[in-house]
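User: Can you write out an input/output pair for a complex, sequences first and structure second?

Assistant: Here is one pair. Inputs:
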Amino acid sequence: MTELYLIAHIAGRGVAIATTQVDSVVDIGEIVAVPCAEAAVRGLTALRSRVVTVIDTGVALGVEPMPAASTRAVITRVEGHYYAILVDSLEDVADFEPQPLSSGLALDRGWQEAGTGIVDRDGEPVLILDLAALVPSLAIAA
Amino acid sequence: MDDLLQEFVAETRETLEALSGEIVAWEADPTDRARLDAIFRFVHTVKGSCGFLDLPRLAKLSHAAEDVLSDVRDGTRVPDTALVNAVLAIVDRIGEIVEAIDAGAALDHSSEDLLIAALAEDAAPTTAQGLQVTTQQRATSRTIRLNVDLLDRMMSGMSDMVLARNELARRLRDEALDPRIEASLERLSVTVAEMRDTVTRTRMQKIEALFSPLPRMVRDTAAEVGKTVALTIDGAEVELDREMIEMLRDPLVHIVRNSIDHGIESAYERRAAGKREAGRLTVSARQSGNQILIEIADDGRGIDVERIAAKALQAGLRSERELAGMTLAAKTDLIFEPGLSSRDTVTNVSGRGVGMDVVRSNIEQIGGRVQLANAPGQGLSLTIQVPLTLSIISTIVVGVDGQQFALPRQSVEEIVTLRGDAVRIDTVGDAAIATVRGERLPLVMLGRVLRLPHQAVGPLAIVGTRDGKFALGVDAVLDTEELVVKPAAPAVMSTGIYAGQTLPDSGRPMLLLDGSGIAAAAGLTFKHALALNEEEAAVAAEPGTPALLFDDLDGSRRAIVLAVVDRVETAAADAIRVSGGRTRLATGGLLVPLHHVRPLPSGQDVAVLRLTDGETEIGYAIAEPLAIVALPHEIVPAHGAGPLIGVVMIDDEPVELVDPLGLFDGEATPAARAPLCLLHGDAQGWMASFLRPALEVAGYRCVSTLAAGEQPAVALAMDDADPVAGVPVVTLRRRRDRHGEGDTSIYRYDRAALIAALADRLAAGSRR
């Protein structure tokens, strides 16, 4: 059974995001910092009269922080709160068949938490990213 | 009362609708216990409400039905068809009467006795059916009952709408605006604002709903404790968020009960105090800005602050020292401590385990505060201050390092600037203290807590938290704003310093700071809300009695009050002689008695403490002097031999405190001339550790307990101690301020005044 995935680039790698997790895709505006919050929280931004928490995806995945100028983001909703997940770039939306992670595939850092499977994109395997896993939760943060 | 009636009508109608299914089911199966219980509950509730609302007809009907149903429940009657029909006829009639009440129409009641008669065991089975149901006179209802959840959703939708409008206005402002669009926007703004008011009002209820049960409750409670209380209610028309009203119900009931039980005296006591026999209790509400103030005032005995303090001490909630450093207000606030009852005996009325601590935490939960105004002997006034609604918060916007943060206005007591003499900042160790009009507060730099680049100290916001106050240094105070605050994401909330997020008109998200969280992040610990106040300052000025710490000849570590140490010197071995049965030290042509706990090592120089009480000199041979330390206040009395006052902890080590009096006592000759001063009621040893050195220097001998036959020339007593008979007494008070004009007591740290007063009393005593 195929599902709709949004193909994006994060930290120079292609990832597939289930469209059910995607609220919208935007270019965010000014970010207001949240002092003392963990590094993955880049700040807050206003989006259509709503306050959205901006997640530095690079930090959340344990790789390089995203460039300071990144504005492109995928908006997702986790437990009633809206988050802007920063991405390098977005490609297209297409139907793919999700496959389990190949056995023996050693993902490290945040990728391991967030990667839930792979899709085959014209012969190129692309990791399925669970956006909710990128959001620092109260339990982890506390 | 009308509101109550309306509520009753709505509630009964609603239950009836729900019950109709049960009735039918019961009719089908009269043995169904669950159905029976449901119907029983219904008539029981109606009966209860009727008694309260004075509806005798309904009361009579429901009472009759309840009796029968109760018999059925007990098994003394079998529910046959006749009985079921009769009960159902009554339930129907209740419905009709309720509709009639709502419509304001009269309803013929001739048939009601028949209905009741039909319940009898031997009633003719046809009676019930023979009754004609009167035509329904149902009024068109103008009210509906709504789920509060729905109202909440409406409210939050409204907030979003306001924010959306703000955003639109902001976007349009950036562009050259077509006047027609501007006019539309203006209209939208007005509509949205009106809408917001209306929606807010849907959640509002007159505070009457909270006050209306009070007269009955006051009457009952007063009767229970055998007092007469006149209740005055004021401001019942003030409107408040209905959720707030629910949250305030329990605290209010508790406070009122407390007032009647603890505050208002018995008629006899009141007469004796020259008050009217009937106690007066005033409950009033008023709106002040977007705050509602509810005041509960009585003219009773007020709070006996010293007794509360004594209780706190007894219960181990506070130490003597902490209490000594507390202001009157701080002590009064002790009634909010968990585990402290202001009364010795628990009565039926209050003291059911729900204390004032619960009252306060309930009120604080909804963003409110409780304040006390205590006038001992005159009464107590308690003010509850709550915000009008839960979702819109009045804030003060502050700036730090170019970023803006909101502080709930509720928690900010005042804003002070460093200009002028009223505010001073000192550094104590690596902590900063702001002194605002004589009050010392810990200073927290917001920038430092938020780990933002450090800025110069700008204005200070005095932030009150539940545990204590502190001064918050910010770069600028920018604005006050009413904000719709929503919870922020967990990752943000987990920092512990934010209370929520908001989107002000500027379009830049803003974080709402949490006062207590900041205090915690800055590492402030308000030790039992120990207010750093003036008296604390006085204590700081006398940081315990200084004492000399030394190693004694027997290897024990001991200390002696520094005031009696004249100097420390090394005595040559040949200056120490044993003559007349005791050891003496020859020095400067004098022979001074030398005290030593062990035989002196012969042929060696020895360190000697030269002690003096102003007249007599003695020596005390030691192994080695160590350091000058401040004596802690807790002195464990010594048991056993030797001139020891007791044991104190210094640097976590027990140290024996040498009693200079005991040393001098042996050298009675000159000391006997010194007048004897009784430190009366000094069970805690405060006077002995604080005053004795000063008194001894001033030429007094001090004792805490009189030996047989001793007659003190003068006595010192704390103001709360038992009176001393037959001796001139100087009374000490714990507070700096006098209790009144006639107060002749001396503030206990006022050494000069104390010495003068002692001399004065002594002189007066000897003239007698």
